[in-house]
Amino acid sequence: MDKSVLAAIFIMMSGLGGVAQTAQQFSEESPAFGAVNIVVSNLESEGNAYFSDAELSERSGRYDEAITLFSKAAFEYNSSNQLSRYGLALMRLSNVHYLMNHYVEAEQVVLNVALKNYAKMGSKMGQMESYGQLGRIYLASEQLTQSLWFYTQQGILARQLRNSGAHIESVLGIANVKIRKREYRMASDDLNQAEALARASNNSRYATKIKQARALIQANRSKS
Q1: How far apart are CA 97 and CA 6, in angstroms?
Q2: Per-residue CA distances from 29 to 33, 44, 73, 157 (Å)
């Protein structure tokens, strides 16, 4: 999708909260007519259809198509005031940009739209996931200071929410930042912490990532 078109979509989406609120007020004031409720329901249904098609496109590697469809899904969810689904569509949109190495676009979707949506909802879970995504984006784009900050924020919220998986991910992210900064001893300490957290929560899904990070430290030390 052309960047100017995508930007226009987000400008339109950011202004639709008032439209959805007006529609809700009209529905409450006119109980004899179900037209507005039907419209909102149809918008949500269309959003679900776009989202489903976007997932298929992403799995098939048709990323440009997935970007268009996730954008349309987000638009429809915001129009129908489905803020949770809206946030999810935005996060998936950002991730497709990330997969295409569109780091600026991936950042802007989360930083300027998704985070504001989750703050409006009061969703700490959404904010935590946004921080983790931004940590990944900044790490991939070699913005290490920003990446470290967002991974740290992810970890703070993960502990508050007692989300062991997100906590481990944040520690692993911090370790990877330190590896990029050649702070190998501190990175090793972080990996030990991640391993201890995984063991305590009986979670084996991060074992491969921890092993790979340790191998990278060893390889980098051998070169120096």
Answers
A1: 12
A2: 9, 22, 28, 40
Q: Which two tokens stand for residue 84?
A: 């949770």
Least confident of 110-114, 143-147, 201-205: 201-205
CA 168 – CA 128 distance, rounded (Å): 13
- Counting Cα atoms < 13 Å in the Cβ hemisphere of 107 gives 15
Question: d(Cα 111, Cα 132) in Å, to the nearest integer?
Answer: 12
Model-level pTM?
0.82
70 HSE (CA, 13 A, CB side): 26
- Closest C-alpha to 168, from 137, 197, 139, 189: 197
Say which amino acid occupies 144.
L
- Closest Cα partner for 151 from 121, 124, 129, 120? 129
Bin 162: left if φ > 0, else alpha if -120 < ψ < 50, else beta.
Answer: left
pLDDT in tens, 126-177: 999 999 999 999 999 999 999 999 999 999 999 999 999 999 999 999 999 9
Instruction: Give the whole-angstrom CA distance, residue 50 versus residue 221.
Output: 48
What is the Cβ-side half-sphere exposure of residue 161, based on CA atoms within 13 angstroms? 18
Q: CA 24, CA 80: separation in Å to the nearest integer?
A: 9
DSSP state of 113: I
